[in-house]
Amino acid sequence: MEKMRFFYDDEGDVLDISIGKPKKAKSEEIGNDIIVRKDKRGKVVGFTILNFEKRSEKEKGFNIPVEAKFEIA
């Protein structure tokens, strides 16, 4: 099972989430300042949310169109 890694850049107001260790990937904007990163097989390896703090203050929370499976290790 891979761990999720979170990094927030407050100067750029960007939240970056990687699934496992960061790796080479292609980025695809899926709308509303959300970018999904996929490896060469098309597996999602992370995503980025632009304007994260600004958006969360304005919208009082928001949905990210990503499904996830969580398990207790």
Counting H and I runs of at least 4 residues, what is the number of helices? 1
Give the strand order of the largest sheet, numbering strands 1, 2, ... along the chain. 1-2-5-4-3
Number of strands: 5
Shape call: globular
How far apart are the first and last residues' alpha carbons, in Å?
8 Å
Brief summary of the model shown:
This protein is mostly beta strands and 73 residues long. The protein has one helix and five strands; from the N terminus they run βββββα.
Question: Could you characterize the architecture of this molecule?
Answer:
This protein is mainly beta and 73 residues long. Helix content is 11%, strand content 41%. It contains one helix and five strands; from the N terminus they run E-E-E-E-E-H. Strands 1-2-5-4-3 form a five-stranded antiparallel sheet, with no helix packed on it. A hairpin with a 5-residue loop joins strand 4 and strand 5. The protein is globular. The mean pLDDT is 83.
Q: What labels would you give this structure?
A:
single chain, 73 residues, mainly beta, five-stranded antiparallel beta sheet, 1 helix, globular
Write the layout of secondary structure elements.
Layout: E1 4-9, E2 14-19, E3 26-31, E4 34-38, E5 44-50, H1 52-59
